Amino acid sequence: MTFTVTLTELSVFLIAVGFLMLVVYLIPAIIQLRQTARSIQELSEDAKVVLKETVPVIDKVRGQIDGIGDAVEKFKAVGSKLPYITEAIAKNVKKPFVVAAGLVGGILYTLKSLKRRKT
């Protein structure tokens, strides 16, 4: 019993064996690819949950930053008015002290003058 195989049959057989080897070789890679895709999907779902929790915090921080910006602007406005305020305070406080000092000086001068006349 002899088997006769034509060149075409041998070529088809070798191509089939090569294709089978390729499929066997690619199966672990395909399985790994599916596992990686599943892991990426889980990571994406976790990221969505974290993002949903983070958005309100970010909004609160933005509101606080806006509030801080308003406070800084008000502080800046007060700081720019501070020289005028100190000047007004100095004028209003200085005038009574000058008058009081003048009165005290005048009274002392008068008392000294009266003391000299008595002696």
List the helices and strands and how they pair.
Blueprint: H1 7-118
Short description:
The chain is mainly alpha-helical.
Mean pLDDT: 85
Low-confidence stretches: none
Strand content: under 5%
What order do the SSEs take from the amino end to the carboxyl end, as H and E? H
Mind describing the biggest β-sheet? none
Count of DSSP H/I helices: 1
Instruction: Work out the radius of gyration.
Output: 49 Å
Number of beta-strand segments: 0
Question: Could you give the distance between the termini?
Answer: 167 Å
Helix content: over 70%
Large-scale geometry:
rod-shaped
Derived structural class: mainly alpha
Tell me about this structure.
The N and C termini lie far apart (167 Å). It contains 1 helix and no strands. The chain has one helix at 7-118. It has a domain at 7-89. The chain is an all-alpha fold and 119 residues long. The model has no long low-confidence stretch (mean pLDDT 85). 0% of the residues are buried. The radius of gyration is 49 Å and the shape is rod-shaped. The chain is 94% helix and 0% strand.
Which characteristics define this entry?
rod-shaped; 1 helix; mainly alpha; single chain; 119 residues; 0% strand
